[in-house]
Each structure stands twice: as structure tokens, then as C-alpha cells.
């Protein structure tokens, strides 16, 4: 046996004893190391970046922000970043102390006890499967804009042509992410890292190209509201809060960098850095793309801004040839985003199943000896995601409601971590990992801001706006109140199952249990 093993990009090698130290940390939580540690610094950073996926989110939601808030909606981007940064900083402390798969579930369990952990994990897992479907639908927004050939069903003018074609394209993408994840984390990491590298290069190139075609200054663009909010109770603030969803829908998923903790080298040190780097890089690059798009578009009042979105801006400003090259890069970004979302969902399902907190836990938590990855969760999540996609064929409005609700559930899952963490701080029981990332005396105010932000944004996301939850067709009360109804059903039914059935079986499965049992859990 050699003294060192190869690392990921940016690592020449790493002493094997360090891997043993990471495995010992995992044993402290009660788990036997089963997943192979092959991921380096760039791999974990790329996982966080690809989940956030600036090109996917901005190209998918730019039209929404402009339609409901005008160009001035841009200010929601730094607002959401500031709030999510508070959450990310809390996660950095947790990633340094608990570098474990299924981070949200395990963190909530350690901080709030098994019941809070299960509910947080359940909400996050359900939301992740819906999010995978939503990301897969983004193919429909981009591919037919590149070439009509990608409109396989109808010509795009029929009532359900776009929705049905979106299901077809999305299903192909989900099949791809399922296969890649089933073949192991190393293949996933290579594809993901290559895709993120292309995405970052394309995003920077897009910023430069847009900056070279500026037609106005920020003073005239970032104050333009289109007169939206006139006559509303809150005026433009109400319109801005609606438009801010376009930013809130993008800037999450940075915790993926820590969810791969059992497959990363030195995760207690690298995961916090990856979380912050992924969020900050996404904020800077995404903010500049949105800004320069608004400054470069020839007509700031063009109706196509609210229908064609960034795709329209790119093709109009840069021309068809360069524009299509950029759109192909967006397709790559969508692909690796779906791959990262699927990967994060697998680790979460594996972590919950390993604690026997899901039906058929032993099968879901089984690590394939050949590919050294949980294959069954990859298939289950893929099948569920395709089934959710089918909802979009004849009921696209219902799907949009469910997609919006999935984002709320992720914000609530984050709250299931930050709120118990705040309680532990107030009780004087929270201790960051010694010698690792720590917020020090800033921990309490940052944690408090993270909880306040998460609560406020969850309420904003769930507010029964007809523009969001019943945008077309006849008005239905159950669609407008869909967030409260759907989340109530998912959380209530799920927790009822856990309380009456699964909690009596919970406990680390024998085949996954470490010889040394965990000590010092915060809920003890």
C-alpha cells in the first residue's frame, strides 16, 4: 500500500492516514465508512455550483422577474444573496463538525433530535425529487430556441405541444442522470466538473460579450419598474416581493458540497470552503449576467423580455451564431444541474435509509460493491421524477404550483437546521469543531438572521398570489392556497407515517453500523 492516494483537481495526493481520520469522524456518528473517498476540492465546489447553476436559473427565470418587477427586480439578487449567505455560514460550521452524507437530515437530527431530523430530511427529499423534474423541464425553454428540430411533439403552437415535449426531453435527461449516478460518484464528478468548467467559462464570456454591447447605464435600467404595483395595497413593494421569487428560486442547493462529505477528502476542511465559494461565485457571476443583459438589450420595454427572457436578449444582442453557442452552454449547465440535484437526493435518501427511517431501508441503503454507490435510490428518484414530469402534460399550471412549493419546502428544510441550531446556541450547547470553521462571536447574530430570513422568505414564497399559483385559466382556491395545502399534506402524512410506523424501527442498520457508537450528540 502506498503512503498517498491521488486526489481530485488541485490535490497532488493525500496521506492515507487522513482518510482514516475522516472515517474515524464518521464512526463517531455511528456509521461504518462505505462510500469511496475520491472527490477533491474542485469536485465539491463544482457540486455546489452546479446545483445552484447560474445559467440554468437565470435563463429559466429572468422573464418572471422582469414581468412582475420590471428591470428593477435586479435588486432582489443581492437581497437574496445576503439572506442565503447567513444560512450558508451556519452550514459551514455544521459541515466542519458533521461531514456526513445527507447533510440536511443529519444536521437537523444532531441539532433537534430524531423527529426534527426526519421531518427535515423528508421535506428535503420530497422537494429534491420535484426540483429534479423542474430542472429537467428547462430543456424545453432552451433546446427548441436553438433549433425547431427539438420540438418533437407537434409544432409548438398546439395547446399541449410545449408541455408534452418538455416531458419527453426532461425524461431523457432524468434517464441520463440516473445512469450516471448509478455508475458511481467518480463518473458523476468527472462529468459534473467538466460541465461546471464549461458553464463558468461560458458565463464569464457571456458577461464580457454583453458588456461590449451596452446601450444604457445602470441608473436608467435598475430604477425602471414599468409602473408595476400601481393600485396594489403594498405598491411596488408587493410587485418586488413577487419578482424576488426569480432570485429565491436560484440561490439554494449550496449544501450539496457538504452532502458528499463521505466521498470527499478532508471534508471538514474543504466542505465549508466549497459552500462559500459556490454561493459567492454564483452571486457575482449571476448578478453580472442579469445586470449586463438589462444594460445591453436594445429595447428595455420589449414585450419579449417578459416572454423570451434571457434567451431573447442573447439572440438579439449577440446574433444567432454566438447566441446559439451560448444557449448550448446553457444546455450543458441544465444537464449538470440535474445531475447535481439527483446526486444530492441520492445521498439524502441513503442517509435516511441507513438509519432505517424509510420503507425498505436495507435495500435503499445498500451500496453496490462494484460501483461503490447506492444504486437503488438513484433509480427510485429517477422514476419518481419522471412520474412528476407526466403531470405537466395536460396540467402545466398544477406542475408550476408544485414546483414553487418544492422551493418552499427546501427553505423549510433549511429552517429545520438553522432554528434548532439557534436554540442550541441560546442554551450554550453549540460548540464548533475545534480548529475548523467557526463564526466565533458572530455566530449568534448570524444564526438569528438566518432564521429570520428563512422564515420571511418561506412566507413570501407561500403567499397565495394568483400570479404565481393560479396564473392562467379559471381561478381555483386550492391552487392559490396550494403551498399551504400541499406542504400540509406532505408534511402531515409523512410525519404521521413516521410517528406511527417508522419511528419504532429507527436506528442504524446493523450492516452500516460502526463498531464504536456515537457519543456527545446534542440531543442527548
From TrEMBL:
Keywords assigned: Membrane, Transmembrane, Transmembrane helix, Transport
Official protein name in the record: APC family permease
Please report the organism this UniProt entry assigns to the protein: Streptomyces pathocidini
Name the residues that span the membrane.
42-63, 75-96, 116-142, 162-184, 196-214, 234-254, 275-297, 325-350, 371-392, 398-423, 444-463, 478-500
Q: Which domain of life is it from?
A: Bacteria
Compartments, record wording? Membrane
What's the main place this protein lives? membrane
Q: Which InterPro entries match?
A: AA/rel_permease1
Membrane topology according to the record: Multi-pass membrane protein
Does the record carry Glycoprotein as a key word? no
Amino acid at each position: 500500500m502506498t503512503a498517498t492516494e491521488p486526489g481530485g483537481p488541485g490535490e497532488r495526493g493525500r496521506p492515507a492516514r487522513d482518510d482514516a481520520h475522516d472515517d474515524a469522524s464518521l464512526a463517531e456518528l455511528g456509521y461504518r465508512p462505505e462510500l469511496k473517498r475520491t472527490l477533491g476540492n474542485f469536485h465539491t465546489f463544482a457540486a455546489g455550483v452546479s446545483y445552484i447553476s447560474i445559467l440554468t436559473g437565470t435563463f429559466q427565470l429572468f422573464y418572471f422577474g422582469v414581468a412582475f418587477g420590471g428591470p428593477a427586480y435586479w435588486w432582489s439578487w443581492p437581497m437574496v444573496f445576503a439572506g442565503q449567505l447567513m444560512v450558508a455560514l451556519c452550514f459551514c460550521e455544521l459541515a466542519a463538525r458533521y461531514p456526513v452524507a445527507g447533510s440536511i437530515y443529519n444536521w437537523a437530527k444532531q441539532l433537534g433530535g430524531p423527529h426534527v431530523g426526519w421531518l427535515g430530511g423528508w421535506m428535503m427529499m420530497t422537494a429534491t425529487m420535484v426540483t429534479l423534474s423542474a430542472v429537467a423541464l428547462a430543456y424545453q425553454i432552451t433546446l427548441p430556441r436553438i433549433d425547431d428540430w427539438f420540438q418533437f411533439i407537434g409544432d409548438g403552437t398546439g395547446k399541449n405541444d410545449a408541455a408534452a415535449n418538455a416531458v419527453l426531453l426532461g425524461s431523457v435527461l432524468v434517464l441520463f442522470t440516473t445512469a450516471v449516478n448509478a455508475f458511481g460518484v467518480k463518473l458523476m464528478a468527472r462529468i459534473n466538473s467538466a460541465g461546471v468548467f464549461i458553464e463558468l467559462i461560458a458565463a464569464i464570456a457571456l458577461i464580457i460579450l454583453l458588456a461590449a454591447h451596452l446601450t444604457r447605464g445602470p441608473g436608467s435600467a435598475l430604477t425602471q419598474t414599468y409602473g408595476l404595483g400601481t393600485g396594489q395595497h403594498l405598491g411596488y413593494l408587493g410587485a418586488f416581493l413577487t419578482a424576488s421569487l426569480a432570485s429565491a428560486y436560484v440561490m439554494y442547493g449550496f449544501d450539496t458540497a457538504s452532502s458528499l462529505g463521505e466521498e470527499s477528502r478532508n471534508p471538514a476542511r474543504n466542505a465549508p470552503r466549497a459552500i462559500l465559494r459556490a454561493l459567492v461565485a454564483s452571486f457575482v457571476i449571476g448578478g453580472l449576467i442579469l445586470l449586463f443583459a438589462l444594460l445591453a438589450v436594445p429595447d428595455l420595454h420589449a414585450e419579449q423580455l417578459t416572454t423570451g427572457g434571457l434567451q431573447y436578449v442573447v439572440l438579439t444582442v449577440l446574433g444567432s451564431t454566438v447566441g446559439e453557442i451560448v444557449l448550448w452552454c446553457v444546455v450543458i449547465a441544465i444537464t449538470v444541474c440535474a445531475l447535481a440535484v439527483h446526486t444530492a437526493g441520492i445521498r439524502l435518501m441513503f442517509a435516511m435509509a441507513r438509519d432505517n427511517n424509510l420503507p425498505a431501508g436495507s435495500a435503499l441503503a445498500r451500496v453496490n460493491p462494484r460501483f461503490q454507490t447506492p444504486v437503488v435510490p438513484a433509480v427510485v428518484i429517477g422514476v419518481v421524477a419522471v412520474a412528476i414530469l407526466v403531470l405537466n402534460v395536460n396540467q402545466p399550471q398544477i406542475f408550476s404550483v408544485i414546483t414553487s412549493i418544492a422551493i418552499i419546502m427546501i427553505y423549510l428544510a433549511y429552517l429545520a437546521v438553522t432554528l434548532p441550531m439557534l436554540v442550541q446556541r441560546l442554551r450554550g450547547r453549540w460548540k464548533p469543531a475545534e480548529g475548523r470553521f467557526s463564526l466565533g462571536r458572530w455566530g449568534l447574530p448570524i444564526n438569528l438572521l438566518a432564521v429570520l430570513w428563512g422564515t420571511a422568505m418561506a412566507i413570501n414564497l407561500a403567499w397565495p398570489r394568483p400570479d404565481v399559483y393560479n396564473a392562467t385559466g379559471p381561478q381555483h382556491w386550492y391552487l392559490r392556497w396550494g403551498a399551504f395545502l400541499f406542504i400540509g399534506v406532505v408534511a402531515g402524512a409523512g410525519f404521521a407515517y413516521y410517528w406511527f410506523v417508522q419511528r419504532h424501527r429507527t436506528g442504524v442498520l446493523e450492516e452500516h453500523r460502526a463498531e464504536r457508537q456515537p457519543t456527545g450528540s446534542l440531543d442527548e
